[in-house]
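Risk mitigation, structural track. In case the binding assays with iron/sulfur cluster fail to produce interpretable data, a predicted complex structure has been prepared as a fallback.
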Amino acid sequence: MASACGILGNGSKTVKIHHLIKAPENTPESVSFRESWDANRPVTVYKTPENLPDGTPCTAATVILRSKGCAWWWKSGCTFCGYFNDVRDDVTAEEMFSQWDFAKKSTNQFEGCKMVKVYTSGTFFEDRENPPEWQETVLRETYALGLHLVIEAQAQMCTPEKIKWVSERHPGCTVAIGLEAYDDRVLRFHVNKGFTTKQWHKAIEMLRENNLRVKTYLIFKPPFMSEGDALTHTTDWLLAVAPYSDEVSVNPMNIQKRTVVDRIFRNREYRPPWLWSLVEMIERSSDKLEKLDCRVIVHPTAGGKIRGSHNCGKCDSDVVSAIERYSVSGDVMEFSNLECSCKSHWKAEIENDTSLPLPLGFGTFRRGSVLDIVRAP
Ligand code: SF4
Ligand SMILES: [Zn+2]
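Fallback model:
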């Protein structure tokens, strides 16, 4: 009996792997760190060059609010998402209004901007995350100011009533959904996304029915995937989701603190994607993408840094700039003059990943000697 108890547990509540991995967020230091944020101020407000839906260049303001955070994250959460580091689960409706006022004041009512991205580290129109009266104010005010609004959502939070409600308050706005991967197994086992491709299709149908714009995020190189597989799969996913989207943004993995990906990265079991892989993905898909009415953006957050998509260190800034330029021009000629000795290293890794039976890949960031990894059963 005693040994059976040893195997079956001692009767106390089971601990999910998610709680073990994300335990740091519950430490007193982590809680006091989060609670040290001023809940009357947004995380950040900044302006960037952007394109309006019709392609006209404009200035966009991005407002990232210190919200209660993503309901899915508090329940389980995506393996790479570190947004919880910036949220406060005790934020009040009043504080959300003060944050919004601060954003308007600091930009002088979004002076010079034609677009505003309002990000809440979760689903904008999820009532458990953000007070409905606050959602309503943001939707109506941005519409009255003539700004194109971009908000984010999880697919399963899109209900016919909510999407209709949003479209009545800000017709034609863009809803960005972090699909990450167009593959249900990857969504479940690599990303822990909390919804399926079927739910995503349903959500975008609802958005279309209400004349809202669809933006889709994909992640390049989710955890537990080799570089070679990431290149093959993300290229396929990009081509599969582009016909359904007005815009696709491919986000190369960057390591956010205290996430599952952070753990395996610190164990030297994960390397963020090579910048060469992003260039290759764009070059492989560009012919087909050209025929579609879909803008493709690749933005290497922390590009060139060790926690972001990177190459050898010497060529990183040139390759990052070329990728950024491509996101504006959509022209693959941006990559024509890029060369570096590290490219052959990257190429060998891709070839090995796609020809040898190593599910986690051949990357130099795998622990142990290469020979042992190859010999491992
Ligand atoms: S759905 Fe979005 S905000 Fe929520 S855990 Fe996943 S990536 Fe983070
Ligand atoms: Zn290089």
